[in-house]
């Protein structure tokens, strides 16, 4: 079972994503801000980290930089309403592996995660 960290400060969206991914059989840890996410990353190994761009304490971008400075190679997907090409480029240059624009459907997210983790269902 793949283990995923979701860092998202919007509670309703976080609940929707957690419920969707748990229904698909993923093990999910959740964080409501960048500091909580960073603490969980230091304590656990994840197959994938899903980050919101705009969060309290550390933004998703700042968190990616912290993760990569510590040489943590876990795959990272940024989830963001900031979907201009310049924003996507910043995210990828900081060390994210993937970018998904908000809003997205739960089905789109599951399909993308399956693709990233190489899982067929």
UniProtKB/TrEMBL annotation:
The modification 4-aspartylphosphate is found at residue 52. Keywords: Phosphoprotein. PROSITE patterns: RESPONSE_REGULATORY. SMART domains: REC (SM00448). Residues 3-117 form the Response regulatory domain. Transmembrane segments: none annotated. Pfam families: Response_reg (PF00072). The keyword Metal-binding does not apply. SUPFAM superfamilies: CheY-like (SSF52172). InterPro entries: Bact_response_regulator, CheY-like_superfamily, Sig_transdc_resp-reg_receiver. It comes from the Bacteria. This is Response regulator transcription factor.
